[in-house]
Write a structure and sequence with these properties.
alpha/beta; single chain
């Protein structure tokens, strides 16, 4: 990553940031520094970056991307193709071209931050706030995060020393403008979870989130707040005292490096982490367009049980919960113990999820949906058969397969393509 005296400084800072990790994983210093660099360049959940790092490794990927800024994406596209099986030459050329074209928007998206990349400043800011750097493979890395696949964070920044992966988690979220009934329901569910030895996960916001954190703190139970900005950005300001208590008795987690300001997009993106950290997600109150529904959506895509608390039919704060229940996307909370029992059941691994399943839907691109629909999971199909089944031209089918592969929706083998 660098040479000379700065490498010593970086290594020292990195060692301090890793000091609280019970047992660091197998990633070397250069790979960790590359992951830190990636965390400053991409926005949360960037699947293209996740795919590149997963295939090439963080260090090789960021060096290749920096080179691509000058030379274009062709070589990077060829590298991606070469990480899979060895296709025929003509197919390889088409796949490389499709992969290169697919990388163009990502390179333009990353260019401004790559040109201002300063890993030293990030490590210094992290050290100043006293946080810890976690990476995949660490003993303290939350296992549920890996279920996000290519949308998983490349690193996590933790403020507090509580390990978050050793207890069954219950994610409790809901309306910021909660009702008294909603606060009572959240308190009862959280108190029951605390008595059962569960980790309480939420987002640190006003309303239901704050009720969940405060009840967990009062019960002496560990709690985790997932932040939409850096761990030094205690937002909302009105909850800063509570968030400091969470850091003292549990943990603040963020995928964005210290100094990153919260934003609307990042609030939505962090909801996938709340869903992934919990064995079960509970929506206590949610309006028709509440962000809590976004957490329920992510939990369902991860195969996690979702519960919703019913309320008065006339209450606007319960519309979202009622819709989840009516559409069979959530189980009704009949008793505060219901979500806890579900979390304890799933703790044994009864509910399994393929970590390769992506959050992004194939519906984003109609051609991608058509090629995915054309494939089966067992018998690989050659390109010409995919063309016949999808009704696409060979060029369009090739492009769509490359995009689908980047999203983790299909896999390429020596005999052809299969659905992931």
């Amino acid at each position: 990553m660098s040479t000379g005296g700065r490498t010593v400084d970086r290594t020292d800072l990195l060692a301090r940031l890793r000091a609280d990790v019970v047992r660091p994983g197998e990633l070397g210093t250069d790979e960790l520094l590359a992951r830190v660099a990636w965390s400053t360049v991409v926005e949360p959940g960037d699947s293209t970056a996740g795919e590149l790092v997963g295939r090439l490794g963080a260090g090789r990927a960021i060096r290749a991307v920096l080179q691509a800024l000058d030379d274009g994406p062709v070589a990077l596209g060829e590298m991606l193709v070469d990480t899979g099986c060895d296709p025929a030459d003509d197919v390889r050329v088409e796949l490389a071209r499709a992969a290169s074209d697919a990388l163009v928007p990502a390179l333009e998206r990353w260019r401004p931050r790559l040109l201002r990349l300063d890993v030293d400043a990030v490590l210094g800011a992290a050290s100043a706030v006293g946080c810890t750097l976690l990476a995949p493979g660490d003993e303290d890395w939350p296992a549920g995060i890996d279920d996000l696949g290519v949308h998983a964070p490349l690193v996590l920044w933790r403020r507090g020393t509580r390990a978050v992966g050793d207890l069954p988690g219950i994610s409790v979220v809901g309306a910021r403008a909660n009702t008294v009934l909603g606060a009572e329901a959240a308190a009862e569910i959280t108190s029951t979870a605390a008595d059962a030895g569960c980790l309480v996960v939420s987002g640190g916001a006003y309303g239901i989130d704050a009720v969940a954190h405060r009840v967990a703190l009062a019960a002496g139970a560990p709690t985790v707040a997932v932040l939409a900005g850096g761990v030094d950005q205690l937002y909302p300001a009105g909850n800063s005292t509570m968030l400091r208590s969470v850091a003292d008795h549990g943990a603040l987690l963020a995928e964005c490096p210290p100094g990153t300001r919260p934003s609307r997009w990042r609030f939505l993106a962090r909801n996938r982490l709340i869903a992934a950290l919990g064995a079960v997600s509970v929506i206590v109150e949610a309006g028709a367009r509440s962000g809590a529904l976004n957490t329920a959506h992510h939990a369902a895509q991860l195969g996690r049980p979702v519960f919703a608390v019913p309320g008065p039919y006339s209450s606007s704060a319960s519309v979202g919960c009622h819709r989840l229940i009516a559409d069979h996307r959530a189980e009704i909370v009949v008793h505060p113990r219901d979500p806890v029992d579900a979390a304890l059941r799933t703790r044994s691994g009864a509910v399994t999820v393929d970590p390769a399943v992506p959050i992004a839907a194939a519906r984003v691109d109609p051609d991608v949906l058509r090629v995915v629909d054309a494939l089966g999971r067992r018998r690989p199909l050659p390109l010409d058969e995919v063309v016949v089944r999808s009704g696409l031209s060979p060029a369009d089918a090739t492009d769509a397969l490359a995009l689908a592969e980047l999203q983790g929706l299909v896999t390429r083998g020596a005999a052809g393509w299969t659905a992931a």
